[in-house]
Amino acid sequence: MTNEKMEQRLAAALEKTAPDDVNGVLSRCEERKGTVIPMTTKKTANRKWTSLIAACLAVMLLGGGGVFYQRANAVASVVSLDVNPSIELKVNRSEKVLSCTPLNEDAKAILADMSNGADLKGAKLDVAVNAIVGSLVRNGYLDSISSAIMISVEDKNTARAEKLQRELTSTVDGVLQTSEAKAAVLTQTLTQDAGREQQARENNISTGKAALVNHVLALNSALKFDELAKLSVEELKDLAEAGAPAMPIGTDKAMDLAAAAFGKASAAKMAYSAVDPELDESPAHYEVEITSQSGEEFEYKIDAYTGTILESKREVEDGAETPAEQPTKPVPSQTVQDIGYAKAKSIALNHAGVSESKAYDMDIELDDEDGILVYEVEFKSGNMEYDYEINAATGAILKHESELDD
Questions:
Q1: Judging by DSSP bridges, how do beta strands 97-102 and 270-278 pair with one another?
Q2: CB 132 within 8 Å of CB 123
Q3: Domains of the chain with bracketed CATH
Q4: Residue among 277, 222, 220 at smallest CA distance from 253
Q5: Is the CB of residue 249 less than 8 Å from the CB of residue 230?
Q6: Is the pLDDT of residue 47 over 60?
Q7: What is the C-alpha to C-alpha distance for residues 93 and 132, in angstroms, rounded to an integer?
Q8: Fewest Cβ atoms closer than 10 Å to its Cβ: which of 41, 134, 203, 364?
Q9: Burial of 300 by CB count in 10 Å (0-12 exposed, 13-18 middle, 19+ buried)?
Q10: Number of other CB atoms surrounding residue 387 within 10 Å
Q11: Which of 78, 360, 34 lies closest to 196 in space, CA to CA?
Q12: In this structure, how many other beta carbons lie within 10 angstroms of the beta carbon of residue 8?
């Protein structure tokens, strides 16, 4: 309806309801905006003043509508879903989706059948998240038991952020259980941070993933943000649990190394491949599965920091497994070195969250454990006693314990 038509209808209504109370109506328009004013009915009219009154009421109505529109389209919360695809959802106070944005190429593939996210605009948040997680499952991102999806909620209102976090966790868990996916669900609530938002924009990731990268950097400041941003949530989670000893080679490099070994072991072409990071195991490694077009299955275990092929197997027709090839030497620029006593101490302290000034009775020894050199680090802090075993070549935490000091 145009403003002119609205004024005409209001004028007609006022002509019947308050023709002789122009000044009173105008004063009440000023004093009681937004309230209902009862009026008595008379049959005389004053069209000039009626039009002015109509205009007054039209402004009131249009102004109220503008406020409603602004509230309905104001961003209250920013929700991000990260696996390797990173997807950002902006929602209003009513938990309606205002926008859905893919932040990397993998995310565009996930949202391809949803018009790149446009179809989710106006949907309830839980419905949109259900659709996105379903697509992640169908595209194989949440298949393995070690895979992980991270839900991040950024909101000025802490209580609202925590409420959304609980609701979305329940929604994602429901989808995973229905589809029998085995992924872990990580959650976090965030307050707005300009520096983190800039990091996210510069690296095409969500603010939630940027927060996880910063957590890993806090464990090892020698690592680089832009390189860590390329890792999946699963890799970042495992890396943090291992104490972030070094920069892993990444799933793409692991796949390249396995593909090169596969090419030497088989003349057939690849029909299927999958990479599973196991950075929290000892030794930290990537497991690569390759199936040839003829149906042969190859498995490779590749050191996560050196690129060495630790193990390779080929499954033959009778189901037995045979070595596919001998382990390779470390790739150039990834040579194995002793991290040293100082680094081993730093890794243990960072993982325990203890500053060097508050640690005492520090004892570090280099030992051979089944052919693997490890640093055994023991120390105390406060009323706690800590015990670590750290791979001397990679810095990976092989074992850690903490207990009350008796």
A1: unpaired
A2: no
A3: 3-72 (no CATH), 77-241 (no CATH), 251-323 (3.10.450), 341-404 (3.10.450.40)
A4: 277
A5: no
A6: yes
A7: 21
A8: 41
A9: buried
A10: 15
A11: 78
A12: 14
Tokens of 315: 């499954």
Q: Per-residue pLDDT tens for 136-195?
A: 998 888 877 668 899 999 998 889 999 999 999 999 988 888 887 778 889 999 888 899
Q: What residues contact 48, with CB distance under 8 A and at least 6 apart?
A: none
Q: Which tokens in the block code for residue 285?
A: 């490694």
Cβ contacts of residue 356 below 8 Å, gap of 6+?
345, 349
- The tens digit of pLDDT for each residue in 203-232 reads 999 999 999 999 999 999 999 999 999 999
Q: Which residues of 268-289 are buried (b: 16+ CB within 10 A; e: fewer)?
A: beeeeeebbbbbbebbbbbbbe
Q: pLDDT tier at 360 (50, 70, 90 boundaries)? A: confident
**Could you tell me the CA-to-CA distances from 294 to 274, 316, 317, 322, 374 in Å, in that order?**
17, 11, 11, 17, 42
**pLDDT surpassing 90 at residue 198:** yes
The first and second tokens of residue 346, run together, are 């730093």
Whether the CB-CB separation of 53 and 25 falls below 8 Å is answered with yes
For helices 341-352 and 207-219, angle between their N-to-C axes, nearest 10 degrees: 130
